[in-house]
TrEMBL record:
<dbReference type="InterPro" id="IPR000859">
    <property type="entry name" value="CUB_dom"/>
</dbReference>
<dbReference type="InterPro" id="IPR035914">
    <property type="entry name" value="Sperma_CUB_dom_sf"/>
</dbReference>
<protein>
    <recommendedName>
        <fullName>CUB domain-containing protein</fullName>
    </recommendedName>
</protein>
<feature type="domain" description="CUB">
    <location>
        <begin position="136"/>
        <end position="175"/>
    </location>
</feature>
<keyword id="KW-1015">Disulfide bond</keyword>
């Protein structure tokens, strides 16, 4: 008896955004519908920030069904329960269109609904998210991450302290 175990990210549910930028990656979505709600975890945050880094159809999926579907998969994006904006997935051969870096901001929450309309192509989605803050700096204890504060521009002073257990090294890259 043989078997194959596959670990993949489950799609859907509630995601609580924090002050540090985090990233969700869905590489081979098989679900026909996937609903994600991104809310601020801390009520003191000014809002929610979401950046759609990639939304593309690519390759042939491992899963084929007898009822084939053809068309472009899409995302419906709703900000604070208001109007819905739709974004279509780009085809697998449009390399220049695979990255979008489109930004969305909301006061409380951003809802993203993925709808699969093509059973032959796999969808890849990369979403970066965080809360919107009007301050910068602080203590960082996570093992890895990315600091991004899109709302702050112009001249400002920030101090971040990277903390690690004594005896361990700390490495930071500034770009």
């Amino acid at each position: 008896v043989g078997f194959l175990l596959e670990a993949r990210t489950a799609c859907g549910g509630l995601v609580l955004a924090k002050d540090i930028m985090e990233v969700m990656v869905f590489s081979d979505l098989e679900e026909e519908v996937c609903n994600i709600t991104i809310r601020k975890a801390n009520e003191s945050a000014v809002g929610v920030y979401v950046r759609l880094d990639e939304f593309v159809s690519r390759g042939i999926t491992k899963h084929r069904s007898s009822d084939m579907m053809f068309g472009n998969s899409y995302l419906d994006i709703q900000i604070d329960g208001g109007d819905v904006m739709t974004r279509e997935a780009r085809g697998p051969y449009l390399v220049e269109a695979s990255t979008t870096h489109e930004e969305f901001r909301a006061k409380n929450e951003i809802r993203i609904a993925f709808v699969k309309k093509n059973s032959l192509l796999a969808a890849r989605i990369v979403i970066a998210y965080s809360t919107v803050v009007d301050y910068c700096g602080g203590s960082i204890t996570s093992r890895e991450g990315f600091i991004g504060i899109p709302e702050i521009d112009g001249d400002f002073d920030c101090v971040w302290v990277l903390q690690e257990n004594p005896g361990n090294g700390v490495r930071a890259s500034v770009t």
